[in-house]
Design brief:
Order of helices and strands: EHEHEEEHEEEE
Largest sheet: 6 strands, mixed
Structural class: alpha/beta
CATH class: Alpha Beta
Number of helices: 3
Bound molecules: 1-O-pyrophosphono-5-O-phosphono-alpha-D-ribofuranose
Strand order of the largest sheet: 4-3-2-5-6-7
Helix content: 10-25%
Number of strands: 9
Strand content: 35-45%
CATH topology: Rossmann fold
Radius of gyration: 15 Å
Distance between the termini: 10 Å
Number of domains: 1
CATH architecture: 3-Layer(aba) Sandwich
Length: about 170
C-alpha cells in the first residue's frame, strides 16, 4: 500500500457538493430528473449529492470500466452492467466522479441518447482537462484538477482506496 496524501479535503468536497446541488436544483426545479451514476467510482459522490439536492430524483446505475490495472487507461470501454431503466422521455443527469480522457463519457452519452431521453446533462466532481482525448460538454463541475492520479471518495487504484473520505494522491 502506498501512503495517501490529502489533495482535496472532505470539507472542500462537501462545499463543492452543496454548490453543485444548488446549480442542479435551480436548473431542474420543476422536474424529477433521473440521476444516472456510473459505477463504481461515483457511488460516494452520488450518495452525498442526493442527500443535499432536495429534488424528487430517481436513481439508476450503469457500470462501465475503462481502466486496466494501475493508473493507465486501457482505452477500451466495457459495459459491465447495462442500464436497466427505461429513460425515454426522461431528463437524465449523468453523475461522474472524474472525467479524464473523456472516453467513458464519450461512450456513455451516445449510449443514452439512443434510448430517447428528453435531455442528457453531465455532472462530474472532478475534471482533468489536460488528459482529454474525447471532447465532453460538462454541465456541472466540482473541481478542475491537474494531471495527477487521485484516489479516495470513490476513486480507486487497483480497487484500493475507494473508502477514503478525502480525495488523495499517492505518495511513492
Ligand atoms: C473511472 C472513473 C470514470 C472514468 C473516467 O472509471 O470513474 O468513470 O474512469 O475516465 P475517462 O474519462 O478516461 O474515461 P473506471 O473505468 O476506472 O471504473 P470505476 O469507476 O469502476 O473505478
Amino acid at each position: 500500500m502506498r501512503t495517501p496524501k490529502v489533495f482535496i479535503a472532505r470539507d472542500r468536497i462537501q462545499d463543492a457538493v452543496c454548490r453543485l446541488a444548488e446549480e442542479i436544483r435551480r436548473d431542474y426545479r420543476d422536474t424529477a430528473p433521473l440521476l444516472l451514476s456510473t459505477l463504481k467510482g461515483s457511488f460516494m459522490f452520488l450518495a452525498d449529492l442526493v442527500r443535499v439536492l432536495d429534488l424528487p430524483v430517481e436513481i439508476a446505475f450503469v457500470r462501465l470500466s475503462s481502466y486496466g490495472s494501475g493508473t493507465v487507461s486501457s482505452g477500451q470501454i466495457e459495459v459491465v452492467q447495462a442500464l436497466r431503466e427505461d429513460i425515454s422521455g426522461r431528463e437524465v443527469l449523468v453523475i461522474e466522479d472524474i472525467i479524464d480522457s473523456g472516453r467513458t463519457a464519450g461512450f456513455l452519452l451516445p449510449y443514452l441518447i439512443a434510448r430517447a431521453p428528453v435531455s442528457v446533462r453531465v455532472c462530474t466532481l472532478l475534471d482533468k482537462p489536460q488528459r482529454r482525448q474525447v471532447h465532453v460538454t460538462i454541465d456541472y463541475r466540482g473541481f478542475t484538477i491537474p494531471d495527477v492520479f487521485v484516489v479516495g471518495y470513490g476513486l480507486d487504484w487497483n480497487e484500493q482506496y475507494r473508502h477514503l473520505p478525502d480525495i488523495c494522491v499517492l505518495e511513492p
